[in-house]
Every structure is written in structure tokens, then in C-alpha cells.
């Protein structure tokens, strides 16, 4: 009978040891699940950071495009102002030619009047 008790006690010890090993495995598996969850959170956070960087880059590209459009518009305005100034110079020159022609006409009229008076 002692041998039966000894064997039963041995089986109980083996069963308890096996239960402890299974518990340790469960703890290890739970810890592994936590580590995997943390890695997933880190990966998701990294994806968010990369998305934010992409948005910032796209916004920066839009700003650079807007600056280029503003610069091009300023260049067009400057060119238009130069054309207006050149047109005004041409108008002023034409007025000077008209005034000179008028002076010549007045001089010719004076010469004609003087000639008629002499005759």
C-alpha cells in the first residue's frame, strides 16, 4: 500500500509541476501578446507620423507652388507696367512731334503773312 501512496504522491507532484509549467507558458504567452500589441501600437504610431510628414510635405509643395505663382504674377505686372511706361513715352514723343509740327506751321503762316505784307 505504501508503494501506491508513493506512486500517487509522485503523480501528484508531476501533475503539480506540469500545471506550474503550463502556468509559466500561459504567462509567457500573455507577455508575448503584450509585446506584440506594443509593437503594433508603435507601428501604428509610426504610420501616423509618416502620414503627418507626407501631409506636411504636400502642404509645403502647395506653398512653394503658390509662391511661384505669386512671383510669376509679379513678373507679369512688372512687364505690364514697363509696357505702360513705354506707351507713355511714345505718346509723349508723338505730342512733341505734333507740337514741333504746329510750330513749323505757325512759322510758315508767319512767313506767308510777312510775304503778303511785303507784296
What's the gist of this structure?
The chain is 98% helix and 0% strand. It is mainly α and 119 residues long.
Question: How would you explain this protein's 3D organization?
Answer:
With 119 residues, this protein is mostly helical. The protein has 1 helix and no strands. The chain has one helix at 2-118. The protein is rod-shaped.
**Residue share in helix:** over 70%
Mean pLDDT: 95
* Low-confidence sequence ranges: none
The total of helices stands at 1
Radius of gyration: 51 Å
The shape, in one word, is rod-shaped
Instruction: Please report which band the strand proportion falls in: under 5%, 5-15%, 15-25%, 25-35%, 35-45% or over 45%.
Output: under 5%
H/E series, N to C?
H
How many individual β-strands?
A: 0
Assembly classification: single chain
| Terminal-residue CA separation | 175 Å
Question: What is the makeup of the main sheet?
Answer: none
Structural class: mainly alpha
Characteristic key phrases:
119 residues, mainly alpha
Spell out the blueprint of helices and strands.
Elements: H1 2-118
